[in-house]
Each structure stands twice: as structure tokens, then as C-alpha cells.
Design brief:
By secondary structure, the protein is mostly helical. The protein contains 3 helices and no strands. The protein has a domain of 36 residues.
Length: 81
């Protein structure tokens, strides 16, 4: 197993980590390992950005929403000079 040293941690962040670890009954080192596992583990095999966006917002879709058909071709905007 590898060892990781992190320097210059903000005092407030370290205090929050200590509190979180105590609430979960773990050492600060184990808490950091768990945070890294959970955070980085979610991303593996998650697909690209489009797939992740779809997963995140799929539950918000409204099956009763009627979208108008696109019959006109896209055109450039006419801007005043």
C-alpha cells in the first residue's frame, strides 16, 4: 500500500475532518481513506459527461411534457448594427 502525505491543510478543514471522524467512530486517517474511496469510487465506470448528466437528472423528467416538433431549420441570429 502507498503512503500519502498532505501538507498545508487549513486548520478549519482539519477540525471538521476530526469531528467527522469522531462521529463515525474512525481515526482521521481512516476517515480520509473512506472519503477518497467514496468520492473516487463513484466515478469509475460512470461513463462520459453526457451519461453522468443523464443519470443525475433522469428522475426529473416529466413523461407528460409535450415538446413541439422542430420543423424549421436553424438560422443565424439577426443582430442590429
Amino acid at each position: 500500500m502507498a503512503t500519502l502525505t498532505i501538507r498545508n491543510i487549513d486548520d478549519e478543514l482539519k477540525a471538521r475532518l476530526r469531528i467527522e471522524a469522531a462521529q463515525n467512530g474512525r481515526s482521521m486517517e481512516e476517515e480520509v481513506r473512506d472519503i477518497l474511496r467514496r468520492t473516487l469510487g463513484k466515478r469509475s465506470g460512470a461513463g462520459g459527461l453526457g451519461s453522468r448528466l443523464h443519470q443525475r437528472f433522469a428522475a426529473l423528467s416529466d413523461p407528460g411534457l409535450d415538446l413541439p416538433l422542430r420543423v424549421e431549420q436553424p438560422r443565424s441570429a439577426e443582430l442590429p448594427e
